[in-house]
Amino acid sequence: MKKILVTLLFLLFGTVANADCNIKSGSINILANDFPALRTLVETAKECKGSADFKVTHSAEHNKIAVPALTANPSEFSVRVAANSSIVPLMNADLIRPMNDLVKKYGKGIQESQLITIDGKVMAVAFMANTQHLYVRTDVLEENGIAIPKTYEEVVAAAEKIRAAGKMKYPYAAAYKAGWNLAEEFVNMYIGHGGEFFKDGGAQPNINNAKGVATLNMLKKLADLSNPDYLTHDSEAIKVEWESGNVAIMTLWASRSGTLLDDEGDANITAATKLVAPATVGGGNIPAATLWWDGFTLAKNRSDADAEASFRAMAHAASSKEMVAKAADQAVWLVEGFVPGPKSVGVIEAVKMGAKPYPMLPQMGLMHGALGSEIVEFLQGNESAEQALKDVEAAYITKAKEQGFL
Amino acid sequence: MPNRSFFWFFFPAGLAMILFIGLPIISTGIQSFYAQHDQILIEVKKCDPFGCKTSVVVDQEATSKIKEEKPLGKFNGFGTYIDRNHLASDQVSEFWSESKSVGEFIGKVGNLPFYKALVFTLTYCVIVTPCVLLLGFIIALSLNAISRKIRGPLIFGTILPMIVTPLVGSLVLFWMIDAEGIIGANLQILMDDPYLSVKSSKALTWITIIIYGVWHHSPFAFVVFYAALQTVPQEPLEASIIDGASRFQRVKHIVLPHIYPVVTFVALISLMDNFRVFEPIIGFSAEGSAQSLSWLIYDNLVNEEVILFGSAAATSIMTIVGISIILTPVLLRTWKEFRTNR
Amino acid sequence: MDFGLDKKSNSLKTFNTIFIVIWLLLACFPFIWTFWGSFKVRADFFSRADWWYAITAFNTLIETGARFTKEAYSGAWFEGEFWKASRNTVIVTISVVSISLFLGTLGAYALSRSTKNYAFWILIIALIFRAMPHITLVSGYLFPFFQLQIWGILPTTIVVLVAINQPFTLWLLYSFFKTVPKELDESALIDGCSYFQAFRHIIMPVMWPGVITAGLFSLMLAYNDFTVTALLLNQENHTMVPKIQSYLGTNQHEGNLMWAVSAVVSATAPLFLLVMFFQRQVISGLTAGAIKG
Fold this sequence. Notes:
The complex is a heterotrimer. In chain A, about 45% of the residues lie in helices and about 15% in strands. By secondary structure, chain A is α/β, with parallel strands linked by helices. In chain A, strands 1, 2, 3, 4, 5, 6, 7, 8, 9, 10 and 11 form an eleven-stranded mixed beta sheet that branches. The longest helix of chain A is centred in the last third of the chain and has 18 residues, at about 385-400. Chain C folds into two domains: about 1-30, no CATH class; about 80-290, MetI-like (MetI-like fold). The model of chain C is unreliable at about 1-5 and about 285-293 (pLDDT under 50). Chains in contact: A-B, A-C, B-C. Chains B and C meet through helix 1, helix 6, helix 7, helix 8 and helix 10 of B and helix 1, helix 6, helix 7, helix 8 and helix 9 of C.
């Protein structure tokens, strides 16, 4: 009893007197993807680990490791840094804990908008945002008398004009690599058309319709204006295309703007590169883009003491004004005190235009997977749009049945 | 060798294999017969930094009850094996009845993921394996005839394709074959076609992957053959030279029979590895044009947020069966030898 | 030993030399290109504008003021902590090779000298075991390893790599043991040796080429493996290949490609020394064996 009292006193003392969290016990083990912004965040969390045991694994294979790791009891990791797609398998299998009480107790610096709540339960705390939006070469557009495109129809017209002027052979680029990337472009465009992936409140697919066909046709039009190797182009490849001056309009992640605006590479291209809002499509008013967040979750199969220590360390990072000031160019932070720079334009515009977040649905991953492989034949010209969408639905239904969703 | 000595000699290796390969295969086999239990969905309010929305989540209370009753999931028998993403028995029979010609039928079946992957896997396997054997053997013979002093660096050079991490090896090659890369650009000049792009055409992508396969695997055959050549006894060779046998006759009648067990080995392993082709598909970003059975497994396990273990298990088991079928002729031969040798 | 050719035949010698030169060019060119490019900046080596940039170092000159830069190496080794990964790789590789060879030679010797039917069936089962795709195996390991709390540490990965590689090692050594005449150990048995003594003193000395070959392949597997090491090791223990993967970046986030390139070049250099060393071993071991045989 005395021990508990002392600990409580310490906790109280720690939170009141010290901005650092002064954690006295527990162990923290973080699983996260591997890129600079997350490394910064974890380093910031480490600052206030106190006497808690602190470990971290940054891995590109985090998605694969997460479910088995958190299923084990006790779980290997106490914290899992996830995004709006990768939180889904954790929720499906009931592996993360609600943190309402912890937020109330230790989450002073965290803004209301950072909380991801499911049915009132705080399941994650977000700290950064991302989306795909347009990048344009202002010099090329001006030279050809084209205004900055606001819709994909304008993108197509602009690219056709640039090609006709003999300026560039393949003026448009987007990550159309078969698989996850291509499916992501479909998701964006379909949402831009106002489509819903599933029939109301269930897991029945709902993409084989006029909106789906329009989406595919738009993708095909854009693909025809891209380098013929587009089915092998990931974000890295199109970024290099851009730096080499082969492309005038591109759809790319906001988080990848870093090297396009720094002083490496051709200075003329860098100077003319402008980040603008994502485009709309088909007369819709929401952008053909999805918003993404990255946030942290706490493992369920871990002791309360570990969860508390982990939360306090992570909350410190997810509300650190110093961190977002120092690492302002690493990400679009959702943390209070973040001053958006030119690299954040795309995300901020997308939010203003009312872009939708990537659907956080239990069965969405299966749909994404089916899209990635089944619409390739359409783009290659071997299949009609209707047939491709029929194939997607068939592939999805098979997977969803195996997973017990249908 | 008596059973007792055999047991102690073999025990450590056997134990390692049973624990880390045997048991997982059995558990994979069992899993392939099960589907996940039903997931009950309910609608709730979800909020994130970009607003609130009502949509579905898995109802944990209801689902965990079902889960406790049947921890393995629903028994599905061969259901996963014959569904559309695998053998697709229903679709195939449907196509058979509605297709007017055999060509149309084959086209439709070839559009199903499993058969699409099977066609590429078999094509790759059938072309690459003999090329690897032949090329490896020729290189081994040639290098063996080179002065011993400079052989070391040459051997290293020869096995470079095998030892450079495929992860980056294929990344570098991928950039080299780009239309603007050193190989791609020179191919355009060579073929006199400024629009030639290796990556955009299906046929050229297949050819690239096959050439890469031969290039990457030949060093393996070379190393084994080269080491085996070192064990060829000298006396019969010298005798045959005195008898006036030609070079080709010597290779055929003395060298080949001596290293025969090793040739069988290389053939077995190459066939198997080629049947499991998948690294070059990832490395060359060729998912759009070429898919293999192993790639399907990878896709089920890695590419999706929701891991499809049952589906991957079924494809894995079918891969094992496929490899067993392909290896049967070689194995029958090994069996005969085994019988006669004892 | 030069049974492939007659020393006198000049035309064949020329043909042979030309063939070897062409093959070596094909085999080494991508690596030489990588080696050369590792001293350039990304905009040159991974250029979509013109591949000549990689040779003329157009951007390297602008960005660093010289035609060659060691930036990629210093970045990967220190900032990217590649030194830590290479230390782990050394531990994993040495352990995997020695354990695999130890288990493999014992097992394969037994298989090659047994006349029972079960020896054949064990070989077949080993082959079927090898047919299992690694990714499925490793996915299956994850949960039990987490539950037993042995995930992430080096010994687990070493044991898994040894086990996964065992069917291959067994088959390879089995075929080499088959080329060693049975009479050799039978005579030793008659002289009163035990099986183990015969194995140790009579068979092993003539088996060097086989053992070195098997060792080389185990080494390659442990050195280059991605599936097992990327999924079964925690960050502290990551070996070189998962480290290189982490330099490559992801869909949404940029990596550092030049680090990956310089890391690959650094990882290949020690293999050169190893191959040179063992190549001599194969030959000397053989001569020794030939005298005894």
